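ok trying again, last paste got cut off:
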Amino acid sequence: MTDLELYNSFKKIVDENTFNNLKKYLIVEENNGYEVFEKYSIKRTKVGYSVTSKNSDNLEIFSSVKFALAFCTLDYRNKVVETKRICFLDNTLAALQINIKLIEKYKKQTKFMDKKIIYQNKLLDHKLRQTQILQELEYLAQKAKQYHLNSMPKTSYK
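nice, full thing came through this time. structure:
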């Protein structure tokens, strides 16, 4: 049973009022993307994943679904600083990955040892920055997950 079939069967079991109340907590997989909290739409593009808000014309592009979902969750909870930070870090990560590929290409092409050493140092610096950015993005994704789990209604059953 796929997630979409499970979602549709869940929709049949639960009454409409309860289902509409739960929709603001759900991340629903569609055939070409995700619908998040009834407010955001995540679609796969050639360059990554685009996030559009249904209430505005803002478009953000991310390198992975994980970071796109983290952005949606933090934006939905009105965490402005964290949402801007995720956008900045993801864009910086994309630029670093391109720079790493270019530096590796230049390092292979050069015949001078001193240039190879300079390229190697730049490569190590960029890779270190890449791991630091990835660690911070993972931290923000975990933070978004925790916000989402804490916002869900708790049951009174024991």
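cool. The longest helix spans residues 113-151. The two ends are 29 Å apart (CA to CA).
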